[in-house]
Design goal:
The protein is an alpha+beta fold. It has 3 domains: about 50 residues, Structural Genomics Hypothetical 15.5 Kd Protein In mrcA-pckA Intergenic Region, Chain A; about 100 residues, Alpha-Beta Plaits (2-Layer Sandwich), CATH 3.30.70; about 80 residues, 2-Layer Sandwich (Alpha-Beta Plaits), CATH 3.30.70. The protein is built from 6 helices and 13 strands. Strands 5, 6, 7, 8, 9, 10, 11, 12 and 13 form a 9-stranded mixed β-sheet that branches. It starts with a helix and ends with a helix. About 30% of the residues are buried. Bound molecules: uracil. The site of uracil (URA) has 8 residues, from helix 5.
């Protein structure tokens, strides 16, 4: 939650916040806050306002193994959504998925009610890497590795940032690879492979930044982030301010 919203909940006036910020009287994990727009989770970080500990909101962070056939949305008139996979007590208007996966894509999806976090994690400024396991309907070669490294250009002229392609197996009719990208363009991975002449037949996200899909999570299952994964959120919040 934004620092100013947190303090407003504690009935601190806007003027008092601004003054305290300038005087360095707002400390986040011991460091002076940089801005009132700073994203803070008092469940993960210690917030001191004029020597008083503010502990008013703990956000929810979940890891979901998205199955195919489910849409990344909070509501849909016809289709099952990722929210429908959660028990009723966890479903809330505020909870949302960080980054969309296509209906037929499986794998790691993080869900949170920390509004600004998704925006920050998806912002190009932070270059959060996403890794996918991919199967395509044709051969892959070292030529492709170089093309992905140089930056794929879509058929419409859009230029992608360099991506890392690792070929796991290759044959005339089917190949397996992992691909790591730092952007989140619409249907990006599918379009990148189409641009080099092959079609994606299976796509699974295994990593999003420092968070990796838990091998023990079956498709459709979810769990709260563990302490190490929460520490990664805390670290990201610290760095991104
Ligand atoms: N790229 C795609 O093409 N689809 C996804 O679901 C995610 C990344």
């Amino acid at each position: 939650m934004r620092l100013d919203n947190l303090l407003a909940q504690e009935k601190v006036s806007r003027k008092a916040m601004k003054q305290a910020l300038l005087k360095g009287e707002i400390l986040v994990d011991g460091c002076p806050a940089r801005s009132l727009a700073q994203n803070i989770d008092t469940g993960l970080q210690e917030l001191l306002f004029q020597d008083r500990i503010i502990r008013c909101y703990e956000h929810t962070y979940l890891m979901l193994h998205k199955p195919a056939g489910v849409v990344t949305a909070n509501k849909d008139k016809e289709l099952q959504t990722v929210m429908d996979l959660l028990p009723k007590h966890l479903q809330s208007e505020q909870l949302y998925a960080i980054g969309r996966l296509d209906r037929d894509t499986t794998g790691l999806l993080l869900l949170t009610d920390n509004g600004p976090l998704g925006f920050q994690l998806l912002h190009p400024k932070y270059h959060v890497d996403k890794t996918y396991q991919v199967e395509v309907n044709g051969p892959l070669s070292s030529n492709h590795i170089q093309q992905f490294k140089d930056g794929i250009i879509f058929l419409d002229g859009t230029v992608c940032k360099p991506a890392q392609l690792e070929i796991l197996s290759s044959s005339l009719g089917s190949s397996k690879a992992t691909i790591t990208i730092s952007e989140g363009k619409f249907h990006q991975v599918k379009k990148m492979f189409l641009s080099v002449g092959v079609k994606v037949t299976s796509l699974k996200r295994t990593h999003f930044g420092p968070w990796g899909l838990d091998d023990n999570l079956q498709e459709g299952d979810f769990r709260p982030l563990n302490s190490q994964e929460l520490a990664n959120i805390r670290e990201f919040l610290r760095k991104s301010g």
